[in-house]
Amino acid sequence: MSDSPSVIFTAYATGILALIGLCQIFILISQRTQLRLDWAETYRKRWGEIRIDWSKVIYFGHSSGDYYQIATAEVISEIDRMKTERKNTTREIWALEPTIRVFTELNDICLRIMQGHLRIGDTYPILGTEFLRQSAAMRNLLDYEYSSRQGNWGDKEHVDVQRSIRTWLVCHDGIRRRCLILIDMLWAEAVRLEDLPPDDIRSAANAKIHTGKERKKRLKEEVIRLNGYFSIIRALSLSYFLQHSEYKVNKYSRGIDAVRLKELEDKWVKRYLEE
Q: Where does the chain cross the membrane (predicted)?
C-alpha cells in the first residue's frame, strides 16, 4: 500500500510527459505547415513578377507565327522587332534573359518539392492549368528529342533563338531535367483533379505508355541525387505520384480509368458544343 502514492505519481508524470510530447509534435507540424505556406506565397509573388518573361518563353517555344500565344500583342511586336533589328549575338543574349529567369524559377520550385519544403498540391495553384496548356511549347525548348519529333519550321531568326535557348539548357542540364520533372508532377496533379480536357489527358497517357517508366526513374534518381539515399521513401512517393497521369495497371491501382475518361469526354464535348 505504501507504494501506491509513488505508482500514482509515476503514472501522472508519464501522462504529463506524453501530453507534452504530443504538444511538441503538433507544434512542429504546425510550424512545418506554416513554412510550406510561406514558401508557396513567396513563389506566388515571384511567379507573378516574371509572367511577362514566361509569355516570351512560350512565344519562343512555339513555331514562328503560331496563332495560340499568351503574350500580349505589344510584347509580340517587341519580340518581332528585336528578332529582326538586332545582330545574332545580341539577339540571342536578349532572348536568353527571360528564359534564364523563368527556367531558373521553375527549377527552384522543383527543388523545394523534392526536398520536402513544398508539396505538389502547394505549387499547383500557383502555376495551374494555364501553365500546363503551354507545356508543349516549354518541352519544345527543354527536350531536343521532343522538338525534333514536332518538326519545327519557321523563319531563320526564330529558329536561331530557339537553338540558342536549347544550347543554354543543355549547358545547364540539371535545370533542364528538373523543369521537365516539374511539368510531369504538375500534369499528374491536374489529371488527378480532372482539370484538363479529356483528349489532352488521353493523348499524354498514350505517350506515357512508352515513356512513363523512364519519367518515374528520372524523378527517383533526381531526388536521391539531391538528398541522398535516405530520401528513398520520398523518391518512391513522388515517382508513384506520376502514376496519376498514366492508365491504371489494374482496377485497384492509381491512375486513369479508361471508362471514366470516356464518360468525362462525352460530358466535356456536350458542354463545349453547348448541346
A: 6-29
Backbone angles phi, psi at 116, to 5 degrees: 90, 5
Is residue 25 in some structural domain?
no
Higher pLDDT, 69 or 116: 116
Q: What pTM does this model have?
A: 0.86
Q: Say if 192 falls within a structural domain.
A: yes
What is the C-alpha end-to-end distance of the chain, expressed in Å? 83
Instruction: Show the CA angle centred on residue 63, arms to residues 76 and 134, nearest 5°.
Output: 80
Grid cell of 116 as nine digits = 520536402
Place of cell 533526381: 222
Give the pLDDT of residue 31. 62
Which tens digits make up the pLDDT trace of 93-136? 788 999 999 999 999 999 999 999 999 999 999 998 999 999 99
* 247 phi/psi in degrees, rounded to 5: -70, 150
Hey, what's the cell of 270? 456536350
274: left (phi over 0), alpha (psi -120 to 50) or beta: left
3-state helix, strand, coil in the chain (%, to 5): 80, 0, 15
The verdict on residue 29 lying in a domain is: no
Number of domains in the chain: 1
In a domain, 21, yes or no: no
Q: Within 10 Å of residue 20's Cβ, how many Cβ atoms?
A: 10
Residue 27 has pLDDT above 70, yes or no: no
* Domain that residue 241 falls in: 36-273
